[in-house]
Amino acid sequence: MIEQPAGHDPDKKQVISRVAAILAAIAEGGPHGVRLVELADVTGIARPTVHRMLGELRAVGYVEQLPNKRHILGQTLARVSMAAPSPKLDVIALQDIAQELSDQTGDTTYVAMRTFGATYYLVRTEGAYPVRARSVEQGELMALTASYSGLVFLAQLPPHKREEHLARAETNHPALEWSESSSSEHVEILRQTVNAYEDNGYIFGHDVVVPGISGMAMPVPVRHGKPYLVVSLSGINSRFQPERLQRLHELLSNAVAQVEQVLGEGQGNRDDRTAL
User: Fold this and answer.
1) I need a labelling partner for 10 at 20 to 30 A (CA). Which of 58, 126, 130, 202 fits?
2) How far is 208 from 274, CA to CA, in rounded Å?
3) Where in this chain does the record put each HTH iclR-type domain (predicted)?
4) CATH topology for the 91-274 domain
5) Tens of pLDDT along 260-274?
């Protein structure tokens, strides 16, 4: 008989791993949420067990259930995660970089982070131009298909994961109700914009996420893994005319390089495709 170390509890270890798998699957679903049956399929955990664990996670605020019975990560878990140390993320420095870019361009600058399968807006700054883009609040969490920054994160995903997010665009996208495009047409526009990222290394478009609004979004390269921060510019369409695009691209690239320095990433992973 093999003697187990003192304090070793295989059942407890299994519970923790199952909870972690369920939370990870819910995180991947983003603000759209995930159904119980989908969680069971993705995690391979029996449906009754998933149901029981969801109840326990809801009781402590780590999971919330939407009116449509889908599950999302809860506010309590979000507060716990924010308490984790993040020495490489200097939000004040990011704010300064973003404000400088807004001052240079006159437009709205965002610094966004991919989290919980969605786009989390760390920073928003405004330029001097009096007509501004539709506001996304600092601290807001949006679906990957609902913003130019989100489309950069979407482009990082495997094709089948991209399609899963695109299939939910009608539910997640705030502008569809007043867009002239049909749902299928809009999804195809999103798909084409994301596909163009493969060649360009950044996202740009007019009327892609919100009618009348243009945007340019660029990832912050990292030495290992996929980019987790995006810097973007947004404004009304007239602010993104061809004669300004080269200059906007240069200024945005410079801001991205500054963020790299803040993260300690340097120039190790720069992408030559980002030249216009």
Assistant:
1) 58
2) 20
3) 13-75
4) Beta-Lactamase (3.30.450)
5) 999 886 554 444 444
